[in-house]
């Protein structure tokens, strides 16, 4: 009788463990499905094709910026300067068009390259000076917020606005550039970025080395991997995708705004950390980050449609991030 009782308890414990493992692996997808069901029942128009397209368009910029953060996370880093890098890039690209009437592709390349100064400073502070990544990138976050605001004179840049010295301008945003911010192009860019980074991280030597460095830096060093080089690479790619996100912001809103990228920091962090648990991978990954961005996007879209005040949305976003972090670190301890 005692044997049967013990066996029953073991089966129940095993079943509970399996259930918890399943929820841990696919909790993000389950949450998305439940949110879809809830919002669709509450508001049938939520499932309309136009609204689904709106959700995809709304998460495109967050996803691209979060993909950069995901790469930083692979080396066990954290890049808080991504929002500032996006703002800096946003200011540069619009000024090149409006103030200087520069060609489209030259402006795009120049904005991306100049913004990589953020990555260079991050790499120096973290890799060479040995400042903890969170503190170093927090510093550069404030620095480049200030740089962007100083560059624009503390205001926005839009077509027809004079330069800071009062010189009239005739530059306009090219039609080709504005298409970047429109559907389906902005969605295609997001999907291409996710696919490329997924292949890079999981199917190339350099991507695997990034994971090795993040898993055990000393072991990676003893294995002959250039740890400093790959940590630098992670921050360069993080800033690159943040810069691309800033360009997408400019194309979407048609101007450069003060701290345009600041509002994307928290959703990007949430998406990247939520994505770490996707499929039980237990590590930062591009597909998981995309799924995490969908969760954040669906939640925000549904709450807006339910007329939840915009100033309350950060409460929900912060709660989602807290749950994601709790899940990630609880799983690591156990």
Strand content: under 5%
In total, how many beta strands?
0
Global mean pLDDT: 88
User: How would you spell out the order of helices and strands?
Assistant: HHHHHHHHHHHHH
Based on the structure, what is the oligomeric state of the protein chains? single chain
Low-pLDDT runs of 5+ residues are: none
Rg is 22 Å
Class based on secondary structure composition and strand pairing = mainly alpha
Termini separation comes to 33 Å
Amount of helix: over 70%
Number of helices: 13
Largest sheet: none
Short descriptors:
13 helices; single chain; 0% strand; 334 residues; globular; mainly alpha
Short description:
The protein has 13 helices and no strands. The chain is an all-alpha fold and 334 residues long.
How would you summarize the topology of this molecule?
Elements: H1 2-42, H2 49-74, H3 82-98, H4 104-128, H5 133-152, H6 175-179, H7 185-203, H8 205-215, H9 217-222, H10 227-253, H11 265-275, H12 286-305, H13 313-333
Helix pairs in contact: 1-12, 2-7, 2-10, 2-11, 2-12, 3-4, 3-5, 3-10, 4-5, 4-10, 7-8, 8-10, 11-12, 11-13, 12-13
């Amino acid at each position: 009788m005692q044997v049967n009782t013990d066996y029953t308890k073991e089966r129940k414990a095993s079943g509970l463990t399996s259930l918890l493992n399943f929820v841990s692996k696919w909790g993000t997808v389950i949450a998305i499905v439940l949110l879809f069901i809830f919002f669709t029942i509450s508001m049938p128009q939520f499932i309309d094709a136009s609204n689904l397209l709106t959700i995809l368009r709304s998460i495109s910029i967050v996803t691209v910026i979060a993909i950069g953060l995901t790469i930083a996370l692979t080396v066990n880093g954290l890049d808080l300067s991504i929002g500032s890098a996006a703002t800096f890039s946003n200011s540069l690209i619009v000024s090149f068009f409006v103030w200087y009437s520069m060609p489209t592709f030259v402006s795009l390349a120049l904005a991306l390259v100049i913004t990589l100064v953020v990555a260079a400073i991050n790499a120096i502070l973290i890799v060479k000076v040995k400042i903890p990544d969170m503190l170093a990138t927090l510093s550069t976050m404030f620095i480049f917020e200030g740089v962007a605001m100083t560059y624009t004179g503390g205001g926005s840049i839009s077509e027809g606005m004079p330069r800071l010295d009062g010189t009239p301008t005739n530059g306009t945003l090219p039609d080709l550039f504005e298409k970047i911010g429109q559907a389906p192009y902005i969605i295609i860019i997001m999907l291409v970025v996710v696919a490329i980074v997924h292949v890079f991280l999981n199917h190339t030597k350099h991507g695997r080395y990034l994971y090795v460095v993040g898993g055990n830096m000393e072991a990676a060093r003893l294995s002959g991997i250039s740890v400093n080089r790959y940590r630098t690479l992670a921050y360069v790619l993080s800033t690159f995708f943040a810069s691309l996100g800033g360009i997408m912001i400019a194309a979407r809103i048609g101007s450069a705004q003060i701290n345009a990228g600041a509002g994307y920091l928290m959703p990007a962090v949430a998406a990247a950390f939520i994505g770490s648990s996707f499929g039980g991978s237990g590590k930062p990954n591009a597909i998981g980050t995309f799924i995490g961005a969908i969760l954040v996007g669906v939640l925000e879209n549904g709450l807006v449609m339910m007329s939840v005040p915009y100033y309350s949305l950060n409460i929900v976003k912060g709660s989602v991030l807290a749950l994601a972090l709790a899940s990630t670190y609880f799983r690591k301890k156990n």
